[in-house]
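Appendix B, record 7
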Amino acid sequence: MDNNSLYTADGFCDTIPSVCGFKREAEETLRRLFSIHGYKEIETPGIEFGDVYTKGDFVNEKNLYKLVDPKGRIICARYDGTIPVARYVATLAKDEALPLRYFYIENMYRYSQVGGGKQSEFTQAGIELLGASGSMADAEVIAIAIKSALAVGIKDLQISIGQNKLFEGVMKQLGIDGSNTEIIANAIATKNLVTLNEIARECGVDSDGVELLTMMAEADGSFETIELFTSKITDETAKEALNNLSEIIDCLKLYDYDKYISIDLGLLENINYYTGLVFKGYTYEVGFPIISGGRYDNVVGKFGRSTSAVGFSLGLSLTITALMRQGKELTEPAAEVIIGYDTTDSEFGKSALALAETLRASGTSVVLDVQGMSNEELELYADKNGINTVIYVNEEYKEEK
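Structure tokens (predicted):
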């Protein structure tokens, strides 16, 4: 029989001291960053009712870690930070004036998310801007996403931005509806041109329409893509979506962040969830985006308060994985001083403790020996554990003082 008590469950892992220390520093960096932009921290429950995620078809139920409480109700571990914030804004914060700005740094739990650096338990940091619409609001969220990645050490960063409304408008322009829209959306997102062409022809799309869909799948990422695409668009919804992208880029130029941006007209995130801007952030050495975000104007309304919303999340655990693979050296935390004493006289112990407390009060990290090691043993212990200073309190030490 396997002894599972010696292992962690699939998708879960221990965080070693060097990683944990860096992670805590990164969390504090992000807290300061979000706070100086006017965002307030919120903590949502680690356990939610399953309906919070499934009633609005926000999350596939099979991806939730589900439990049954003593009353027989389905509850689940926190899947993400956005949906609980939306619930909060529509309930406990329903009388607060808009716009509202919140941030979170919390652990999330997703079933079957393992591989390539992904874990079933991971830390996300994110912001939600609620009650503010328009390109300036979209750009603020993207700009803070970029600042977040840079602040924790990412140097090679690309943000791909797209617009779900563009797809909606193109479908109307081409007269495509029903289940075919989902097939085409998936073909565009995966750049499956064979399926894209087949379904388009089955829907009676002419050659110009097929070219339009192919452009969405193969756009090269340059800003000129927007202008080129606009010349082929007649639907007003699609035109507004392209105009939104242009305005966002203009806003990001004010931050001098346009250098991080590329256009991806085939970036189609959950079309039943996102209602406009969508974006993802990438760096090298991991095969998944470390940043995901977008506009979700219909989500808060599912909980009873209609308001616009836009936000992003940074996968902090995945970001740290990327940094380590990119060569980031994480140092093992170590005390600065170790203090031991001659145990033959209680006065030495009293002096050692007083010295340790004085140093700690000044911000110095101190280990006080509790095993009665000799001076030589302290020196050896310090060498093995990266402690720079050894103090041994005895008669000789007191005489020197």
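Remarks on this record: The CA atoms of residues 145 and 312 lie 7 Å apart. The first strand starts at residue 40 and ends at 41.
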